[in-house]
Amino acid sequence: MRSLLLFLAFCLLVVMMAVWELKRLHENAYARTALRLQNDALLVSEWVKGAFQTSDYLLRDVVTNFPQSELDPERVSAEQRARWVNWLDAKRQTLPHAHSLGLFSPACIRRYTHDARFQSYFDASERDYCVKLRQYPAIESVVSPMVMSNFGRYAVAQARRIPGPGPMGNGFAVIGLDTTMFSALLDRIDTGPHGVITLIDSQLQVVARKPALAGVVGKSIDSPMIRAFIEGNVDVSVGRRVSQLDGQPQLGVLRKVEGLPLIVYQGEHDRVWLRDWYARIWKIGLAALLLLGIAALLLRGHWAQLDLATRLEQDIAQRQRLEDELKISEKKFRTFVEQANDIIYTLDLQGCFQYVSPNWRDQLGTDPAAVIGQHYTRFVHPDDWPAWHSSLREKTSSLEYRIRHAEGGWCWHTSSLTLLLDEQQCPSGILGVTRDISRRKANELALRQARDAAEAANRELQIANAQLSNLATTDTLTGAWNRRYFEQELQRELTQSRRYGEPLSLLMFDIDHFKDVNDRYGHPAGDAVLVGLTRLVQCNLRAADTLARWGGEEFVVMMPHCDADEAVRLAEKLRVLLAEQPFETVGQVTASFGVAQCRPDDSPQSWIKRADLALYQAKADGRNAVRLIA
Ligand SMILES: Nc1nc2c(ncn2[C@@H]2O[C@H](COP(=O)(O)OP(=O)(O)OP(=O)(O)O)[C@@H](O)[C@H]2O)c(=O)[nH]1
């Protein structure tokens, strides 16, 4: 963590140093370029001043040598006037860039000009030079901002007062200077491929520019900053700006031309004056990155060493901790082994005891020393050897077995066995923890015996219940359902039949002259007839039909899903079968049958009553017959 912080601090330091160095280089480049531009601007302004001084000499010459008496052309002859015009033109031609030269009266009326074609009346009282001469009587000479001259060219007018008594003296001379002279002047200056020099007048009009741009001369620059500079007290201003004329970012110097309504702007494109600085950005940036990269590599190496050292320390600490834990664990284990109720032992893979805890003696009466080296079969009941044998091959297992007590007899024990592994993860022995469960086994035996007795009693009870239930629903003599059961079934079937709209019929039959059978052959023979008859009828019914003994020698059969016709057919069949069946001792007997199909409005009683009535009719009609009351 500390090294990371150091690295981050180093990174910060490198970045700060790089930024500081770049800032310093930028400032140097700025200062150096600004100084050079200032010098260049000074040079240009001096040149411009020099140009105006030259023209001013010409004006001085004119003002000094032109006689005052000749200024009013009305008083001068035409020939004399022509001579003065030629004189003025000769003076003008001494300056190659002077395109006009004239003389004005104190009232700013032009009296003479160098060209005979322009001798007409011209009032210059509104012109800037006239206004200034009138406004400031103390000054001798003025230069006006650039104007479009009468000759159709941009020009700057320079005027010089003609000394005289009035506030305006005896008038003034004006020379018109073609602004192309400034362009020619600027052309001679080496500005480099991206340097700019612009001459601007006090009206913020471009007077001349290098490099030249089409239509730029006379163009007004809308710059509050330049306007403020013109109106301010400082003579020089340095700053970065974007040129309004060509849109280039530049470092530029503005310098007022002393005593003239002109300023020089000298600028250099950022690309030029910052060229070295841009190159240094790359170099310094790469150097910083290199430094940071080296630092990062060093840090990584340091971390790797640190990590190794830390891991070694951790390993040592962990090993120490494990050793301590092992000691504690061993101590605990020994205490646990020696004080526990359970017998703890180890076996080799063949099943011989290698260690047994001291309580073996307490629980099994043998000294532990005598047990060590012995095979488990020496102590374990032979019936439990298979369980032991298979457990010794398991990773973990538990088993219950009998083990011999030194004083004779067997104790029940349970053991949990765990396979022990050596450092190579190979089985090296078996750890066993055993506990005496003799008491539990005795309890289990008692419990099992009690449960067996309870189950036997339960079974007897179920048999008795079944018998009781049978008795409650069946007739003991014939085995047919009894009347009570039949009535329950009748009610249930009646409900079912109504719910599903199925037909349901009832058959009631009674043995004919049964009293005579009893009387003649005895009651047991009569019983035998009843039993035989029941079997015969039962064998000829469907599984869904219910046969019940209604009472004495009278029986009923309920037939679900069976209409009156089917019921009559069955009754007829039974009647014939019975009549043809010989009974032991008694011989053949007959029976009469009454049939009734259940009606929708029937109650059990009304339905049974109709069957009974049909039976009565069969009896009345001579017996051994079937009758239906539908
Ligand atoms: N053996 C024997 N006889 C019974 C048993 N129950 C009723 N009886 C006898 O059945 C006889 C019924 O006689 P009756 O009611 O006069 O009818 P019947 O003699 O069969 O004459 P009809 O029915 O009119 O043909 C009686 O003698 C009863 O003692 C029984 O469980 N075993």
From TrEMBL:
Pfam families: GGDEF, PAS_3. Residues 312-339, 440-474 form a coiled coil. Residues 397-449 form the PAC domain. SUPFAM superfamilies: Nucleotide cyclase, PYP-like sensor domain (PAS domain). Residues 502-630 form the GGDEF domain. CDD domains: GGDEF (cd01949), PAS (cd00130), PDC2_DGC_like (cd12915). It catalyses: 2 GTP = 3',3'-c-di-GMP + 2 diphosphate. Residues 329-384 form the PAS domain. This is diguanylate cyclase.
